[in-house]
Request: fold
Amino acid sequence: MMVDDLPAANLLMALVAVLYGFWSQGISRATRVAVPVLDKKQALAKVDRVLFTRCLPLACMAAIVFLPHMVDMLWSGAKALQQTGLAAYAPLDSARTAFSLVVLVGVAIAWHLWRMAWALIRLRRRLKA
Reply:
């Protein structure tokens, strides 16, 4: 991890978090759209709009930004543990800890958004049937 990664990760995390905060209620409401018996066009349009303009783009953005860092953190942590044992984790590095927390929160948001996207995709299939 370079020193410049922390401000960049914080900025991207802030962007993801702000968009998630603005859009999460709308995404959540869209997952609870009732499947009407007759005219499904309006419900399908709402689900499509939320899925393709909010949920999927934000889920992709969060995954692309944070998952590579998460994999790198796990890989380097496992290597450090293998090479030096628990002594590798003795010194506290506040920048690395902050970066790790930012990445963990970003991955949690990405995971939640992908769960919501999957729920919207299943609902979309039911509305198209």
Remarks:
- The first helix runs from residue 5 to 31.
- The chain has a mean pLDDT of 85.
- Residues 5-84+95-128 form one domain.
- The helical segments are 5-31, 41-84, 94-128.
